[in-house]
Amino acid sequence: MQTAIDTPVTLTAGAVAELKKLINEPGFDNSQYLRVGVKGGGCSGMTYVLGFDQKQDNDDEFEIEGIRCVMSRSHEIYLMGMEVDFQGGLNSRGFTFSNPNASKTCGCGTSFAV
Q: Which Gene3D superfamilies match (predicted)?
């Protein structure tokens, strides 16, 4: 398992706080990992995936601030160096993605092109 020093993505303090809040909710399935990934679609070509899921055979596992994470090995090329943040303001609320590999992003910030 990778440590926070060599993880493919980083989580800001705001993202860590929000994720830990979700993990600590009653009924959370502690066998799940935070999945960080991509899928085809969206207005710019690829869409970010961020959610809780089971580990698959083709996943790499890493941990950030006690949060167990997984990412498909094939997604690292698109997400290496990305920062995930959580915005809690009145104008925008939710997870945001700052991806140095994206050549173009859409207005909503959830899809990108490489």
A: HesB-like domain
Q: What is the mean pLDDT of the chain?
A: 85
Domain ranges across the chain: 4-113
**CATH class given for the domain over 4-113:** mainly beta
H/E segment holding residue 35:
strand 33-40
The answer, yes or no, to whether residue 111 has pLDDT greater than 60, is no
Q: The pTM is what?
A: 0.83
Burial 49-62 (b: 16+ CB within 10 A, else e): bbebeeeeeebbeb
User: 10 Å Cβ neighbour count for 20?
Assistant: 12
Run of H or E including 21: helix 13-23
Strands 33-40 and 9-11: unpaired
Alpha-carbon distance of 65 to 63, in angstroms, equals 7
Q: Name residues whose C-beta falls within 8 Å of residue 51's C-beta, 6 or more positions apart in sequence.
A: 34, 35
